[in-house]
Amino acid sequence: MKRFSLFAVAALFIAGAQLHAQGAAKQDSSKKAAAKTAQSAAKTADKAATAAKTDAKAAAKSADKATAAAKTADKAADKATGATQAGTAKKSGKKKSSAAKKDTTAKKP
To answer: In which element (H, E) is residue 108 found?
Structure first.
């Protein structure tokens, strides 16, 4: 009987040791899976950062083009305003001289 119980205890001890070893292996694999997930997330973040840099560069170029276009539009508007003012001055000058002629004619009789 003693040998049988000693054999049973030894068998339970060996079985427990094997289960403990399997549990450690499962924990290692979960750590590996977590490490792979972290690496994948890091790669995705790097790709997103690269895309953001590219988009920022494109936005800066678009802003520069828009600034240049705005300057061109301002210059064109200034020219148009100057031409309108010059045209108005000429027209008003003509009206004044015709009005002055009428006044001069009116004073003589």
So the answer is: none
CA distance 106 to 109: 6
Distance separating alpha carbons of residues 64 and 62, to the nearest angstrom: 5
CA angle 14, 15, 19 (to 5 degrees): 120
Paired tokens of 84? 């309108």
* pLDDT score recorded for residue 87: 62
Residue 93's pLDDT is 47
Q: What Å distances lie between residue 53 and 13, 39, 49, 57, CA to CA?
A: 60, 21, 6, 6
- DSSP per position, 14-50: HHHHHHHHHHHHHHHHHHHHHHHHHHHHHHHHHHHHH
